[in-house]
Amino acid sequence: MYFKYSKLFTKSSRKKKISFLVSSFFFSFLGFIIFISTNVLFADGWESSIWKDKTYRNQRISSADPTNGNDDFIKIPKKKTVTIAEIKTRGVIKHIWMTLASKDLMARKNAVIRIYWDNHKHPSVEVPLGEFFGQGWGEEYILNSAPLVAAPKKGKSMNSYFPMPFETGAKIEIENESDEDISNFYFYIDYEEWKEPLDSSLRFHAQWNRSITQPNTSNGKENEWALLGETEKTVFKKENYFSVLETEGKGQFVGLNLYVDSPTPLWYGEGDDLIFIDGNQTEANLKGTGTEDVFNTAWSPKEVFMHPYFGYPRVSDSVGWLGRTHLYRFWVESPIRFEKNFLFLLEHGHANSLTLDLTSVAYWYQSLIPKPMKVLPKKEFRVNKPEINFRHIHKWRDSFRSEKGYGEIWGNE
């Protein structure tokens, strides 16, 4: 092919032919990437089985108006919990879609989704609604990943494509912790009803965690990039790290949403990821090189970018990295397996040197846990930290000038 095209390169047409080849290669490569991204999401890819005869029945539970009118929603009163789906059979939830309207601007943060499998008394999913679907801080913005999608209008449409198997039943609850009603709550729960037993005891889990970290350096300084002195070596102490997930049993870890609110303009992401598998909590089985690296990016990014498996759907709009950034990573191409236990820790700055407001939602599959998961704090303990803006930066400058005696100060001294 290249020999054939080379004969076309005359002096008068060389530039045009090169442009044609580059364009052809680019669009062919783009098509290949799209094909790969959409066909290798969770397992063997749909193209290998979509044409085969199926034995399940497609079922749906939704908020459709039972009178056949157009009021296709339910109301979830303030301070109330509503069971939106209760399935008493065997199957797999394949898709969840939800959207809502409320006078409460923090409704997505103040509502909680809980999911129970196989008549288990403890929920396997207990997460604020927005943060479960990849919407941090009660905000609304676009997220475009393989398992979770926040779609137009402006991210108001919340979707999950995580397959969620159950053997004897499933129950989904929405709790409205707000002081306002959710006046309009719309939903689809699409599932397959199976006759054959499941070939796995693993069930879908999701857990929320939050910590406002403090510097654990020897002098208490938020030293990063050696701006405040020599960089310290990291000394491992489990309690100094942000805990993404700690669980016991057999399973496989598949995903993480991380919501970072940084009170400093300095880069928040020098912290490494440490993953301990099956009893080893002295030396990480999987050790990373920086927060941006575990999320498959590089060089302190501050750009909106979304891939089926990883991305930054929301980045700071302030100076440096001050403010809110949302990162996600899904290990659907190769889940991280564990047989006995699992621990995922994340440094907050190199040597755990930074104050950060970190919120995570971990997604994994494992056998049902006999004891309850970590208790989700009430909404009063989940509120956002106040915004730090240009006014506060000017006050920082005044403190610096005061320290220097209010002389002729530029600010970079």
TrEMBL record:
Membrane-spanning residues: 20-42
Superkingdom of this protein's organism: Bacteria
Pfam families: DUF2961
Keywords noted in UniProt: Membrane, Transmembrane, Transmembrane helix
Protein name: PF11175 family protein
Native species: Leptospira wolbachii serovar Codice str. CDC
Organism phylogeny: Bacteria, Pseudomonadati, Spirochaetota, Spirochaetia, Leptospirales
